[in-house]
């Protein structure tokens, strides 16, 4: 069938595309990988030109931890699709959804640490207001984590008694 693009789902595990058979996990991995790559490229293109330093004002100073946060954001952006692909390939999507952000966090911490060292001369200490906001967000985050774990255990306890 030259010139025609035909997709037929043969079973739940095999897809027929233009006369060739492919495993569903491979097709989904290619699609998710392409979407992740597209998201990264869009992010890089949008980031070009942001916070360019003006020579008359001197170099732009960033608060301590700024580049670590950027690295973690990039790592999680890469880790979530990677985890979904891992889940699809192992046929355990829950495992992939759980491990994706964790892998991304580890990868992002490494990326952020390298970026922080690279831009060490453009870092400034946190202001008192930034420290206050950071402490407040930490307390807020830990509170929601404790609340979420408590609700999870209560739900499992109630479901176990049924």
Write up this protein.
- The protein has helices at residues 24-47, 66-89, 93-118, 128-161, and strands spanning 7-9, 14-17, 20-23, 62-63, 123-124.
- The protein has one domain.
- By secondary structure, it is mainly α.
- The model has no long low-confidence stretch (mean pLDDT 79).
- It contains four helices and five strands.
- The chain crosses the membrane at residues 28-46, 67-88, 94-115, 136-159.
Brief digest:
It is built from four helices and five strands, in the order E-E-E-H-E-H-H-E-H.
List the helices and strands and how they pair.
Blueprint (H helix, E strand, L loop, with lengths): L6 E3 L4 E4 L2 E4 H24 L14 E2 L2 H24 L3 H26 L4 E2 L3 H34 L1
Parallel strand pairs: 4-5
Antiparallel strand pairs: 1-2, 2-3
Helix pairs in contact: 1-2, 2-3
Features of this protein?
4 helices; flat; 3-stranded antiparallel beta sheet; transmembrane helix; single chain; membrane; two-stranded parallel ribbon; 67% helix
What would you call the structural class?
mainly alpha
The number of helical runs is 4
Helicity range = 55-70%
Number of strands: 5
| SSE order, one letter for each helix or strand | EEEHEHHEH
Strand order of the largest sheet: 1-2-3
**Contiguous uncertain segments of 5+ residues:** none
What summary fits the major beta sheet?
3 strands, antiparallel
């Amino acid at each position: 069938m030259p010139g025609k693009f035909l997709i037929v789902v043969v079973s739940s595990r095999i897809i027929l595309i233009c006369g060739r058979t492919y495993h569903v996990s491979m097709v989904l991995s290619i699609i998710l990988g392409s979407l992740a790559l597209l998201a990264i490229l869009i992010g890089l293109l949008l980031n070009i030109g942001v916070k360019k330093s003006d020579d008359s004002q001197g170099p732009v100073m960033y608060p301590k931890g700024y580049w670590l946060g950027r690295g973690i954001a990039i790592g999680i952006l890469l880790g979530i699709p990677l985890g979904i692909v891992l889940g699809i390939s192992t046929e355990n999507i829950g495992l992939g959804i759980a491990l994706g952000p964790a892998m991304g966090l580890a990868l992002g911490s490494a990326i952020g640490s390298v970026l922080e060292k690279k831009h060490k001369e453009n870092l400034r200490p946190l202001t008192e207001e930034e420290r206050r906001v950071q402490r407040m967000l930490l307390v807020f985050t830990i509170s929601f984590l404790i609340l979420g774990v408590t609700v999870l255990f209560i739900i499992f306890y109630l479901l176990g008694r049924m």
